[in-house]
Design brief:
Blueprint (H helix, E strand, L loop, with lengths): L1 E4 L4 H6 L3 E6 L2 H14 L2 E4 L28 H10 L8 E4 L9 H4 L12 H10 L2
Parallel strand pairs: 1-4, 2-3
Antiparallel strand pairs: 2-4
């Protein structure tokens, strides 16, 4: 299962506009995404699902919250830990969907996107789905 989420823009802070963050409970899934990303010209970087941040998703009002206790700290990781609560141990990965560059910047920096829709990581996800076993 692959979850694609914005993770509150924290991915852009962590890895910038040209790389998507991935968190997973299945190392093979990340290896596949990264390999397919290389073929597609799309970049991925794995972030840890750090257990020390697990208490940050607990809430006094609800069962869970998807924001940390300290503003700006580990936003992507805390978002990943929150999402992981809903997968019941299934092989899972969360792709921190990055914001694409503005259209006027994209052709110069990412020529393979010229005349294509601005979907982030679609080629990688498609190829990954075809090869995942």
């Amino acid at each position: 299962m692959i979850d694609i989420a914005t993770l509150t823009g924290a991915c852009v802070v962590a890895v910038g506009h040209r790389i998507s963050a991935v968190m997973t409970n299945t190392p093979k899934l990340y290896q596949n995404l990264r390999a397919q990303g290389v073929r597609a010209g799309e970049k991925f970087w794995e972030l840890p699902l750090e257990k020390e941040y697990q208490p940050d998703i607990k809430s006094k009002i609800a069962d869970l919250q998807n924001i940390g206790k300290r503003r700006g700290e580990a936003g992507t990781i805390i978002g990943g830990l929150f999402l992981q609560e809903f997968v019941d141990g299934l092989p899972w990965g969360a792709c921190g969907y990055r914001r694409r560059l503005l259209d006027r910047q994209r052709p110069a920096l990412l020529p393979h996107w010229r005349n294509r829709p601005p979907g982030s990581d679609v080629t990688t996800l498609h190829r990954g789905a075809l090869t995942w076993n």
